[in-house]
Structure formats: C-alpha cells, structure tokens
Design a protein that fits this description.
The protein is an alpha/beta fold and 393 residues long. The protein is built from twelve helices and 15 strands. Helix content is 37%, strand content 21%. The strands form five sheets. Strands 10-15-14-13-12-11 form a six-stranded antiparallel β-sheet. A three-stranded parallel β-sheet has the order 1-2-7, sandwiched between helices. A two-stranded parallel sheet has the order 3-6. The longest helix is centred in the C-terminal third of the chain and has 34 residues, at 342-375.
C-alpha cells in the first residue's frame, strides 16, 4: 500500500507551542486529510553534519567562550542522531502496523540545551564554556545574535530559536518495540557528526534548503556586464576543477580582504555573508551555497553559474564558461552580470566598477594558476568530486 511518511517535530500540543512546531502539526493534519495513509515520526533536535541546529550549536561553542543566552538553555530536549532517524524512516516501510500511526522518536539521553553545549565543547576539545542565562533575550533577539555569530541566517534562525522554548521529549516509546535498534547517545552522535565534517564527507547541508531559482531572466531593463577571458594551457577538466574551488576555505583567488569586507557588510545588513562557506572543499552540487552565492548552473567541464544571495539593490550572476580548444588549451570566460533595481542599483554598480579590475582580473589569473597546478599533477581529484560535479539541470 502506498503511503506518506512524514518527519515532524516533537513538542506538547497546546496554545504555548511555538509557531514553528505548530506548523509541523498543521502539515500532519493536511497530509492526513488527503486520503493517503500517513505515518508520522516526531523528532526533536536531529544531530548530524550539515543540519542547521547542529551548525548553530557548533559555531556558538567554537566562537563564544562566554555565552549570554535566553532561558531556553534550561529547556529539556531529547536529541537523536541522524543515522537513527534514517533507520526509523526506512524501518517503518516494512511494518504495515505503522500505517496511520504517529510515533515519537528520540535518542537515549534527555538533556538540557546547556548540557548539549557542554558536550559539544568537550568533543571539540575546547575549554568549558561559561553560560549565563538572562530573562531579557527574546527569540527574535536570539535569532539576530545567531545570525551574527553563526552562518545561519535570521530567517532560518528565528523559527528554530522560538521552538527552543518548548520541551521536546518523547511521551511514548512504541517505536522501540516495533523497530528495536541500538541508539547513539548525544555524545556519540556529536562525535560522529564532527568526524564527518573533519573528513569532508558532508553529503547535504542546511544551506541547500529552500527555493532553488535558476539563472535570472535578464529580459527587460538595463543589464551591466563585466566580461573577461583568457587562454589556459590546461585541459577543460583541470580548469573546471579550479573554478569549482572558489569560495569557502579556498577563498576567491584574489583580493580576499575585499571579499571578507563585503561579507562583513552583508552580514551586518541581514545577508548571509561569507559564513555559509561551502559544503565540501572540492565538489560542487547544483543548488548549494558557496559563501553568499548559490549554484544555479552546472555543466561538467563547461560551465558554473552563481547567483548572488547577498543583500543587493538588484540581481547579480557570476558565470564561468570553459571552451576546450584542443592541444591541451582551454578558453576561460568569466562574466559578471548585474541588473540594477532603481537609482540605488545604478549607484551601487558605478561604485564597485573600479574594484572589478582588482577582484575579477585577479580571480581569473588565480584560476589559471590553479588550473596549471592541477594539470601538472599538483592535486589528484577525489572520486566524490567527480560524482558531485555532474550537471543537474
């Protein structure tokens, strides 16, 4: 029998349930009313590499030796490892008795958030963090603080912060009778997630969530263009690999201080800044974030297109096109497009044009130097990079 399996959120029902958790309940009701059988699994914090809640905890602990927090740090929570969630999601498929049922799922530990922060610090081998709860910090203020300290944006942090006020503990444990399995403790789950991050094996990231727009439609209005090209004495594959390394820890090949300044300014006005980084230092996937850009075009060994997500008075696209010219030669074209929005868009473009000679020329030269190094065997590609750099359009 066909059915829907929905992963919802734990939390006591009632008027005090946060808007975020209430919306999960509304989704459950909407799915149940569609006429297709539904199995619902309700989880609290899911501990796994790439998840927004895990990244919030990790960055707060890494960057703040002293934390002034809202009272929610004393709220009880029953986290569960992402591995165990996946096991339950797959397991209910083979259990017909789970059809039409709602199950709470959680790990073996019930902790306060402050205890989870302490465990995170210990697993990161950091000194004990001083946590000072104060009653004045609202979820809204907390979300802005999270926005400034971590890569998570305000719009995503706000519902997560609001949900932290509600205790999220399993009220029943029927799932363990139907699908008995050993469950990771919070410490074990955090350790596994940190290992995955350290080994660059993060399969998906919170930054890939949300709408995935394609290339901007440039029809109508003024569109400014900065186009540059050069020939590289390397194969299209080597050039493409060099292009795919932009952003994150690799930087942007030139004038990184300007990129960092732009990222800081963007962060201050509510944009993502550079803190999202990238999911993997080598591979690129369609729809994922590279700092304050989003991958909207990807053709292996031919093209990478990035759409700007920083706060801008207009729309911007940065595109790299590679043409194989034979005999180990490739033509690399780099194009920046900007469609201004109103007079502020025009002023913005003319203000940054003088910097293009530094930023974009330097980037192009840096990509060529990296491609030559790769072509000379300076770095062997990983199999994961080859798989993820396939076109997904």
């Amino acid at each position: 029998m066909k059915r829907i399996i929905y992963l919802g959120g734990l939390g006591e029902t009632g008027a005090n349930l946060s808007e975020h958790l209430s919306s999960r309940r509304e989704v459950e009701s909407a799915l149940a009313s569609a006429g297709v059988p539904v199995t619902v699994l309700r989880a609290a914090v899911i501990v796994g590499s790439g998840s927004a809640s895990f990244e919030i905890l990790r960055y707060l602990v890494e960057r703040l030796p002293v934390m002034i927090t809202p009272r929610w740090v004393s709220t009880l929570c029953q986290p569960i490892a992402v591995r165990d969630v996946i096991s339950y999601l797959l397991g209910v498929l083979d259990k017909p008795e789970t059809i039409g049922q709602v199950f709470d799922i959680g790990g073996p530990d019930v902790l306060r958030y402050r205890d989870i922060l302490r465990i995170m610090a210990e697993e990161l081998r950091l000194p004990r963090r001083l946590i000072l709860p104060v009653p004045l910090l609202t979820p809204r203020l907390s979300s802005y603080w999270i926005h400034l300290i971590t890569p998570i944006g305000h719009s995503m942090a706000k519902p997560l912060a609001e949900g932290l006020k509600n205790p999220v503990v399993c009220r029943e444990n029927r799932i363990s009778d139907l699908l008995p399995q050993p469950l990771l403790s919070v410490r074990e789950a955090i350790r596994a997630a940190l290992t995955t991050v350290a080994e660059n094996r993060v399969a998906t990231s919170w930054s890939m969530a949300g709408p995935m727009p394609g290339d901007p439609d440039w029809a109508g209005g003024s569109v400014f263009r900065d186009a540059r090209e050069l020939t590289v004495a390397a194969s299209a594959s080597a050039v493409f690999r060099a292009v795919c390394r932009v952003g994150g820890g690799h930087g942007w090949y030139a004038a990184d201080w300007l990129w960092k300044l732009r990222g800081l300014l963007d962060r201050l006005v509510g944009g993502p800044g550079l803190r999202r980084g990238r999911r993997d230092p080598e591979s690129v996937g369609f729809g994922e974030a590279l700092d304050f850009w989003r991958v909207v075009g990807l053709e292996r060994d031919r093209r990478l297109a990035l759409r700007a997500e920083m706060k801008l008075p207009g729309e911007a696209l940065l595109e790299f096109c590679i043409e194989d010219q034979g005999d180990g030669q490739s033509l690399l074209r780099q194009t920046a497009l900007f469609r201004p929005r109103g007079v502020f868009g025009l002023l913005y473009w003319y203000a940054v044009v003088p910097l293009h000679g530094i930023v974009f020329s330097g980037m192009l030269s840096g990509i060529r130097a990296e491609a030559l190094r790769l072509a000379a065997g300076g770095d062997q590609p990983r199999a994961l990079s080859v798989d993820l750099c396939e076109a997904k359009e």
